[in-house]
Amino acid sequence: MPLQIVRRLIPEWGTTYGPPGEGPFPAVMVLHGSEGAWSGWSHRNAAILAAHGFLAFPFGYSSGGNAWNAGHIVDCPLDRSVEALAALREFPFVGPRVGLYGVSRGAEHALLLASLMAKEGAERLPEAIAAHSPPDVVCGAFDARSFRDSGDPGWQAWDVGKRAWSWRGSQEGLLPTTPIEVERYGGPLFLSHGTSDRMWSVEMTRRLEKRLQAHGRQPEVHYYEGEDHLPGSEGENRHHELLLDFFGRHL
C-alpha cells in the first residue's frame, strides 16, 4: 500500500510531513506548546495537516530536553524561528504560500513572532496564521523540570525569574504581561479557544479579538462552548474542520 503521508527532511532543521509526490504543496510551520518539542504533539498535528494536503513542519524551538523531559521554554531566540520559516520556504516541495500554526505557548510564539516581524518591516511574513488557546500577553519562562500541579507547594504558572523569549539578542519589550501587538500583522488570522479553558482563560482571546477589531481588523474567531484547553473528540474534530478550511482558503 503506498504511503499517504511522507516524511521529508529539511537538512539541519528537521523533518516534515506531507502528501506523496513532488509538490509543490502549501506549507505550515507548526509550533508546539509548553509540552516541549520532544513530546510529539506538534508532530501529530503536522500529520493531521499532511493527511489533508499540506506539507507541515513541526519546528522544535524549546531548549534542552530528551525522551523523558521534552524541553523548556527559556530564552528561546525568536530570530531562529524566522530562520526556520525561511528554510521551509526554500524547501523544494513547498509552494509560494506558508502558514503558521501554534497551540497554547505555540500560539503565543506565532502571534509574537508575526508582530515582531511586522514591526521590523520584515519581508515574507507568514501568509496566514492560526492560534489556538493563545494568551494576549507575553508570558514567562517555563521549565518542565520544576513543574508542579496547581495546588502543590511551590506551584506557579511560570518561572517569574526567567524570560521565555529573546529577539535580536535582547529581551527588551518581551517581559511578562507585555501585550502582544498582534494588530501589526496584516494577514489572515484564525483564533480559537475553548470557553471552559482552565489553563488559559478564554478572556485572553476575547481581548485579542476586541483589540484587532479596534484596529479595523476582522479576524476569524471560533469559541468552542464547554471545551477545555485541549478540546475533546467532538470539539477537536470541529476545530480541525475549521482550521483546515482556513488554511485551504488562504494557502
From TrEMBL:
GO terms for molecular function: fatty acyl-CoA hydrolase activity; serine-type peptidase activity. Pfam families: Peptidase_S9 (PF00326). InterPro entries: AB_hydrolase_fold (IPR029058), Peptidase_S9_cat (IPR001375). Residues 164-251 form the Peptidase S9 prolyl oligopeptidase catalytic domain. One of its GO terms (biological process) is acyl-CoA metabolic process. PANTHER family: ACYL-COENZYME A THIOESTERASE 1-LIKE, ACYL-COENZYME A THIOESTERASE-RELATED. This is BAAT / Acyl-CoA thioester hydrolase C terminal. It comes from Billgrantia gudaonensis.
